[in-house]
Amino acid sequence: MLRALPFQTIGDVARLGLELHVYCPACRTTRQVDAGDPAIAGRGFATARFRCAGTRPSIGTACGGRGVPKIQPRELLPVGGSVTLTFLWCPHCLWEIDQARLDQPPWSGTRQRYACPGCSRPVQWHIHGPAWRPSYAPRGASEGEPS
């Protein structure tokens, strides 16, 4: 059984203190969208369509590519922290949620998979634990000893 995502509309994204960015794969740019804008607040984030208004640097013409909505926290967590992060996406509706923390609201409470609010298919996810950093110490040497 699939569980509904904690937010369904663009306005819900703003109310939870998250940001909405739109990435254009054609010209490789990202722009932040005001998720609190009343003109788009009622639209479903998974079914909203965005077109790039930027200029393709290689050609110099208007891009017009299809934008991919990306939802993320206002402050991204540093790489190498001790936090377990989850990245969610729907390959059919083309959206993604970056740095969801399953141990904090609105994500906490269950380990059930989520359903996409656009197509009702299971949301794909990747759970990423703390980053591994090599010590670059030679084998057999402890961390406190010079090599």
How much helical structure, as a percent, in the residues?
A: under 10%
**Shape category:** globular
Which residue ranges are poorly predicted, with pLDDT under 50 across at least 5 consecutive positions? none
Q: Label the structural class.
A: mainly beta
Order of helices and strands: EHEEEEEEEE
Alpha carbon gap, first and last residue: 54 Å
Content of β-strand: 25-35%
Taking the sheet with the most strands, its summary is: 7 strands, mixed
Q: What does the average pLDDT come to?
A: 83
State the total count of DSSP E strands.
9
Number of helices: 1
CA radius of gyration is 19 Å
Counting structural domains, the number is 1
Explain the overall architecture.
- The chain is mainly β and 147 residues long.
- The protein has one domain (3-128).
- The chain contains one helix and nine strands.
- Strands 2, 3, 4, 5, 6, 7 and 9 form a seven-stranded mixed beta sheet that branches.
- A hairpin with a 4-residue loop joins strand 2 (18-24) and strand 3 (29-33).
- The longest helix is centred in the first third of the chain and has 6 residues, at 10-15.
- The protein is globular, with a radius of gyration of 19 Å.
Summary, kept brief:
The chain is mostly beta strands. The chain contains 1 helix and 9 strands.
Ordered list of secondary-structure elements with their pairings:
Layout: E1 3-4, H1 10-15, E2 18-24, E3 29-33, E4 50-51, E5 66-73, E6 85-90, E7 95-100, E8 114-115, E9 124-128
